[in-house]
Design brief:
The protein is of the alpha+beta class. The radius of gyration is 17 Å and the shape is globular. It has a three-stranded antiparallel sheet with strand order 1-2-3. It has a three-stranded antiparallel sheet with strand order 4-5-6, with helices on one face. A hairpin with a 3-residue loop joins strand 4 and strand 5.
């Protein structure tokens, strides 16, 4: 079975459930998850993401294709902004006070810490005049 390509289009909360909208080759879809199902999904995605980042095939310890992330907050929602480069970014609005908002904030904090560590850490090869 081959993997299907899907794109997240929105997240919301309705009637005590977390709503995730996405599109794939068959069209638009929406799924509703309970709080526990959402927490399980976030945990599973975090584990898979960390495994993918740690894979020898990954080009760095940063998220592949993502330069940096940013949290932008308004009175109603939090926006998880993903920068692909200095000109292209994607915004993912998330209701404030949700488990998903908290998890995305922790992911942003971890990425900021990694990026800071990479910026201040010189590889041993750099001292020898070698390029990575």
């Amino acid at each position: 079975m081959s993997a299907k390509t899907m794109k997240l289009t929105y997240t919301d909360s309705r009637d005590g459930r977390v709503i995730i909208g996405f599109t794939d080759e068959r069209g638009e879809h929406e799924i509703a998850l309970s709080a526990i199902e959402t927490a399980d999904l976030i945990g599973a995605l975090r584990t898979s993401l960390e495994e993918a980042i740690g894979s020898p095939a990954a080009d760095s310890m940063a998220l592949p294709g993502i330069e940096r992330v940013q949290i932008v907050e308004t009175a109603e929602e939090m926006v998880f902004r993903v920068y692909m480069n200095d000109r292209i970014s994607h915004d993912y609005p998330v209701p404030k006070g949700t488990v998903l908002a908290d998890e995305l904030r922790m992911l942003a904090d971890r990425m900021e810490a990694r990026n800071s560590a990479k910026a201040t850490h010189r590889s041993p090869d750099a001292k020898k005049g070698k390029l990575n």
